[in-house]
Amino acid sequence: MTQLTVVRGDLTRQRADALVNAANSSLLGGGGVDGAVHRRGGPAILAECRALRAARYGRGLPTGQAVATTAGDLDARWVIHTVGPRYSAEEDRSALLASCYRESLRVADELGARTVAFPAVSAGIYGWPVEDAARIAVETVRSVRTEAEEVRFVLLDDRAYDAFTARLSRTARNGKPA
């Protein structure tokens, strides 16, 4: 059974088999988590992302999908890049957000990753309300069959940490998603 944990901290300082990057579709870095992963991971990540763009993702990685690269200088073996949806009050995009977690775990299983660290995908500059992002993340990860022994949610700010901690404790108490 997969252990789910919540940690307050910097994703790029985590030790794990795979770190999940909340990437933009270009795979070429940007702001937020994506920029931090590329800065701390160094040029090897960008080089592999450029190769992926040239070979498979000329128009960019589609929203909800995931792909892996080296972790470069990070304390991990791989970075799994996933593109979260931008939040919309007019359109329900929660299936795309759930797909980010499912697809990232699928890629992690293909790689043989036993520890996977996630940020709060889409809950930063993409504007997803953090409580709902936590609900979707925790419910999705709990429902996925994975070989990962630990899935860690790594949250940089108190609000996200509190939302994920509350959601995780609620599902643990009830034994099912709340």
Automatic annotation (TrEMBL):
<dbReference type="InterPro" id="IPR002589">
    <property type="entry name" value="Macro_dom"/>
</dbReference>
<protein>
    <submittedName>
        <fullName>O-acetyl-ADP-ribose deacetylase</fullName>
    </submittedName>
</protein>
<dbReference type="InterPro" id="IPR043472">
    <property type="entry name" value="Macro_dom-like"/>
</dbReference>
<feature type="domain" description="Macro">
    <location>
        <begin position="1"/>
        <end position="172"/>
    </location>
</feature>
<dbReference type="Pfam" id="PF01661">
    <property type="entry name" value="Macro"/>
</dbReference>
